[in-house]
Amino acid sequence: MYRLLNVNRASAVQKVLRLPPPTCCGCSGSPAAQNFTQYQQYYQMLYRQVPTRAKSQGNTSTPAAATVTAARIQSTTPTQTDALAQSKKKRLRKPRYAKYVELLEVTELTASERKSKVKRLKSKKLSEFIQRTQQQILEKRAREERRARKNKSGEETLRQPVEYQKINLEVLDSSILESGIYDDRPLIFFGKDEYTKQVVSNPEEMQNILKSFHNFREIIESMEHEKQENSEAALSSYSFNAAKHAEESEALDPFETMEPYIAPLEKPTETIKPSLNPATAKSKKRFKSNVHRNEEQERMAKQRALHINLTTYLNVCVSANMLHRGLSTIFSYRARAKNNIKQNYNSVITIDLYNILLQGYASKGSFDRFQELFKLIKEDSLSFNEQTYAAIFECLGRLEPTDQNLKTIREYIEQAQQNGFSLDQIMDRSKFISDQRDIALDAIKRIHPDYMPTYVPPQLGYDNELLNHLNEYVMPVGVEPMDAQHTSDFAIMKPKRGFSKELLEQMAREQLKTELDGSITIKSIEKPKEFVNAQLCRDKLKELEQNWRKQISAAIVRDLNTMRAQVRFKPHGFMNYYTYLKSLDTSHFVDILVKEIYKLAEGSETFSPTVGQLHKELGQKVQQRFQIEQKKGNGTLEKVGEIYSAYCDLWESGRSDDNTRQMWQRLVHEHRHSGPSMDLLEVPWPTNVQAGVGRFLYNILMRDIKLDAHIMRQKAKPKQQNLLPAFYTLFRNQGRLVKEEVKAHPVLSRLLRASRQQTLTFESNLVPMLCPPQPWSTPHNGGYLLNKSELIRLPHQAVQQWERIKSSNPQHLYPALDSLNQLASIPWRVNTQLLDVIIEVFQNGGDAKLDVPQPPSSLPPLPTLPSKETDVSHAERAKQFREKLGYRRKQAEMYSLWCDALYRLSLANHYRDKVFWLPHNMDFRGRVYPVPPHLNHLGSDLARSMLIFDQAQPLGVDGFSWLKLHCINLTGLKKRDSVRERLLYAEEIMSDILDSADNPLTGRMWWAQSDEPWQTLACCMEIANVYRSPNPAAYLSRFPIHQDGSCNGLQHYAALGRDEAGAYSVNLAPSAIPQDVYSAVAALVEKTRKADAANGLHVAQALSGFVRRKVIKQTVMTTVYGVTRYGARLQIARQLKDIDDFPKDWVWPASTYLTTKTFESLREMFTSTREIQDWFTECARLISGVCSQNVEWVTPLGLPVVQPYNRQELKATVRTGFRVPEAMSMDMYERPNILKQKNAFPPNFIHSLDSSHMMLTSLHCERQGLTFISVHDCFWTHACTVPELNRMCREQFVALHSQPILEDLSELMRRLYSFKDNDFTNDGSVEDLSKRQLNRTLKQLPAKGDFDLNNVLDSVYFFS
User: Fold this and answer.
1) Backbone torsions φ then ψ of 725, nearest 5 degrees
2) How far apart are CA 1312 and CA 513, in angstroms?
């Protein structure tokens, strides 16, 4: 703490700052002295904690008042004038170590009280700061000073600085003064002779001072590279007052209790704008940006990003009990937004931000704060909304019901009604947590004792032409099914039956425990390899983990204290990471880091997370834990338990015609009378916040986690330790970029392998659920019970689609939500009979032919590179080096596939005796996916084969036939044969099928020759069970039967264009045998190849006999999904490499040739498809190029879709220390990536159509009581219900394509993107012509053919 020196120091200070001597009392000084005095007051105002109250208590000219308001000079750094004068003196500068620090008695006691910050200010920066501050004060307070000067004659006397002891500054070298930089050698100034003698005679005092200096040096150095604050001017119209004292019962963070509180001045002053001379004024700079379309879009992006950051930050401030920090933050950005002329003030500071703070203060009953915030809301011209009045009533409800309290409540009830808000609207539309609803209702009942809120019931039905007929099953809210006069069989509940309420509640409790723990640890199926010292390593690892936990806990406390000291006395309430980090206890951070240590140590040699990825992952884990803790604290956990218990009642009874969403909505509505709201929006932390929080933990991981290099030595001496960092970083090429990656120390990895823990840990939101998932009732609530599940898989910068979803009618989203709920409501089991066979193959080293990954150790060793002395040519050495790189790449690929199989099989083994559910979400096009990534029915042949339905149903009359037909379909041997011929073939090979089931690994292994070997084996096992049962029709089967679309993308194109030839080739029309489009394309390519070979083309001759269906199948399949020629060439080259007889030297020339011929053949076969695809591409090119907007559309089921492809500049992240950066990338304000937009639109639109077809089929199957599961265009059901599935699948395809899909798309795009007449300049410019071309193209629909869609209803092989 600086000690003020005595009177004679003033002359030295005046000399340094070139100021005239102080005038006598009552006399006014020169303007320069007045400016300096104002600067002193401004500086004191910024850093003081408690406002002076002397002026209000008496005469301001008293000595006491003079003492309180006296300013002091904080720096001995010379001004710019002195610096120039000193530089003229040709004295030699001293070395860099000749710097100094002025330390005036800094002790630990005073440091803890004040936490004063000593900054390094060079002379130039300081002088510029002083001049800028003086100018601002002059401009903003000129009028007040002129009016107040006459009445405050004695004020100038009070503003004179305290005089210091005279110090001969000439003794000091000028270079020291000019440098103004601190060094490790402090120069200590003492105030009084007595004190000097005391310190000299007591070395302990001297040591305390030096110790204090060293304690603060780290803080000083950490701020060396901090960006200089440029927002001082924004707050020049505000004063800093002390925060009001909290109630005695309120526990506040020490940092929060000393937080400066900012209050606005009563009279804002006008800003003096300098006049510009037209002759010398600079021309406006041209806007240049590769990301944003124009300056307006860039400004809107910044405003939106700031608003999102403020919303998140204020929510965290309230949850962390840092209300004053939140208040000062909103004041700071409010002032900045007001002073920024270009910024739309009301788009940044909204009533929603104030409502967050109001709810925080309401929970403490601080109505005084409300009054202050109301003044600000009025100044900002904002209006109260329902949430504002709810906070008011809550705050008043927490106060004693005095007469004044009742009067205030009555006034605000009347005010709300005058503003058009009834009490029912306030209670219905507001969001509540904990007991807020009950407290607000209690306040209202003080005035209206009989009041009971009426809540608006939710809309349950559809608003879509394709689904409106299903609304006849929906009963009004409040009407029980048994009350209705109808004879329903409740078929919709059929797939959900078989579970008692007690069983469901028990499973729900297990699921909640898993989600609260945050992770699940399971046993690995990897073949155990016990090491000799395994037990010793386990003990060492356990001891090491205990030490890590202590080190991490101490490091977190240390770093948080440092960050608190840095942030504590910042003059402005900017957003900082400290607030986010204080939202959780230290124990949570310790758990997160310990789990991350094990995860990193178990990583492979060839892959490691980059530093940026690790920052983001750690930040996401902190956010997930924060959200869980929030739900535990705000009553959501208990409310979910209540509603889910009632939900289990409906599952047990099975007496409901509602789907799962409608059931959940009814239950939520019934429980709205008390407790928290169930539709709370979980505000996700911005990516910059996640990265900053993760960086904080990453620094601890790298700095504080130590490892003894001798830890694995059994005979090491107890005192022999070599502590090294447990993690290090390396740089590795990733494509064209070099990324910094994090690796574990080899000793740590070796220790973990030697301990052989034989366990795997998964996060709770990556594994299946043990109970039925929470239905999606809104875009923000569904899936896991507590864990946050994202409805749509989107990159972080894609916010435009979320905006479209928020602004759309909720009923338009119901079809997509209900389809996700239907898929998630199907219970699953593991096919244990097949799982044991797969695990046996995996543990015995895998099998490449059976698609069971092999470990990297199975690779043959690579020959070592010859030494430099060996006589080897450069070409040979380069070839060997490339072989080594290829070997390492193959090794990494094998390890990745092996780990994926290990995770999948270990999870399947863990759930082998359990029933589980798979929550679903979708991508931006509407395609659905299971949320758990490892164990699901989506993926490879091995992944699909392991799962069966939990509910068993009798096969019935035709079930066994469908089972045999499914087995033959999986083999791929009879694709061109009819159904009858396939069934006859199944009977012929029944002995092989039974042998495969009985001796899967030791028999003839007929199943291994199949296209889908593991699914074929599973089907063989099921056929064997049915074949040997006494009554096959009564056999209860859990086995799913697949019905797969015949090149589904081309089917949608043919239906859109009513293309007869194309429709026939993809089985939209009836035929005696299935039409194979892949074989047809291969025949066309072969015909062209023969002609080219006859003409002497060598590549065509080399391909003789190799133009096969399998070679071009993937290319034909993916053509409609936007595969490029380069991608198609890679696909064909991969197939040619797998043919042993094909000459390897011809792989690349032949793949290029086949790619060209395949594309030409497709365009020849599908004329209408080509025209529609070209129209899609041209529309997207013009929309993204001319309009500079993302392409968007609405699916036939009402889901808004926006393509999230934008230009993104790769900018180096600016690290701002503990301050949260405000910039965010958002697609709705950025230039689109034209190439991606135009190439992706055709396949994305077709994907949205096939997802719409799937959803329609899903909802109609659910209504009829069928078990339905989809893998995109492959539909699964029980064998006994395949005919019903086929009928509904065809009916919904016809219904979907009977809609004017292309016409609706054209109308929507014209409404969104077409230009009006006044937008044309008629000057013949390129821009003008492009606009006209856009308008023409959007209207020019492709011509359609004469194909009758009703033919699909009779097509056997449409889905088969």
Assistant:
1) -60, 135
2) 48
Distance separating alpha carbons of residues 634 and 431, to the nearest angstrom: 12
> What span, in angstroms and rounded, lies between the C-alpha atoms of 1331 and 81?
61
- Backbone φ/ψ region at 379: left (φ over 0), alpha (ψ -120 to 50), beta: alpha
Structure tokens at 423: 């009490």
Q: How many CA atoms lie within 13 A of 643 on its CB side?
A: 28
Tokens of 484: 């209705």
Could you tell me which residues come within 8 angstroms of residue 1290 by beta carbon, excluding any fewer than 6 positions away? 1352, 1353, 1355, 1358, 1359
- Report whether 1253 contacts 1068 (CB < 8 A): no
Minimum mean pLDDT range among 239-248, 462-471, 720-729: 239-248
Q: Which two tokens stand for residue 698?
A: 């990453």
Mean pLDDT of the chain: 81
Name, in order, each residue with C-beta under 8 angstroms of 1144's C-beta and a sequence gap of 6 or more: 1137
pLDDT above 70 covers a percentage of the chain that reads 76
The pair of structure tokens assigned to 347 is 């788009």
The pair of structure tokens assigned to 286 is 């041209």
What is the mean predicted confidence (pLDDT) over 94-115? 41
| Backbone dihedral angles phi then psi of residue 1225, each to the nearest 5 degrees | -90, 125
CA distances from 191 to 2, 166, 168, 210 (A): 10, 10, 14, 17
What residues pair up with 832 in beta bridges, in sequence order? none
Instruction: Find where tokens 């701020």 sit.
Output: 223
**Has 992 been annotated as catalytic?**
no
Closest CA to 463 of 813, 846, 169: 813
Give the mean model confidence (pLDDT) for residues 41-67.
Answer: 41
* Average pLDDT score over residue span 446-450: 94
Dihedrals phi, psi of 930, to nearest 5 degrees: -70, 140
- The owner of tokens 């002790």 is 107
Choose, from 302, 1157, 1273, 1331, the residue flagged as catalytic: 1273
pLDDT tens-place string over residues 56-90: 344 433 333 333 333 333 444 445 555 555 554 44
SS3 at position 179: helix
CA distances from 1227 to 85, 799, 1223 (A): 55, 6, 13
Choose, from 1113, 1157, 1238, 1331, the residue flagged as catalytic: 1113
Q: What is the pLDDT confidence band of residue 151, given thresholds at 50, 70 and 90?
A: low
- Tokens 């911005």, residue? 686
The pair of structure tokens assigned to 167 is: 């110090």
pTM of the model: 0.80
Instruction: Report the amino acid identity of residue 1338.
Output: L
Strands (E), 1186-1237: 1192-1194, 1200-1202
Distance from C-alpha of 1316 to C-alpha of 1337, rounded to nearest angstrom: 15
Per-residue pLDDT at 180: 39
φ and ψ at 292, to 5 degrees? -95, 150
Known catalytic membership, residue 1273: yes
Task: Write the CB contacts of 521 (distance below 8 Å, at least 6 apart in sequence).
Answer: 759, 760, 761
Higher pLDDT, 68 or 901: 901
| Number of other CB atoms surrounding residue 349 within 10 Å | 25
Give the count of beta carbons closer than 10 Å to the beta carbon of residue 456.
12
The pLDDT assigned to 288 comes to: 67
The secondary structure of residue 922, as a DSSP letter, is E
Note whether 1012 and 1271 are within 8 A (CB): no
Angle between helices 323-339 and 351-362 (to 10 degrees): 160
CB < 8 Å & 24+ apart, contacts of 439-442: 439/393, 439/394, 439/397, 439/398, 440/390, 440/393, 440/394, 440/397, 441/393, 441/397, 442/397
On the CB side of 483, CA atoms within 13 Å amount to 6
Q: How far apart (Å, rounded) are the C-alpha atoms in residues 913 and 551?
A: 41
Question: Mean pLDDT across the stretch 306-333?
Answer: 91
- Catalytic entry in 1044, 1090, 1092, 1328: 1044
Q: Which residues of 834-855 are buried (b: 16+ CB within 10 A; e: fewer)?
A: bbebbbebbeeebeeebebbbb
Q: Are 619 and 690 in contact (CB under 8 A)?
A: yes
Q: In the block, which residue shows the tokens 């009177």? A: 7
Q: Is 1113 a catalytic residue?
A: yes
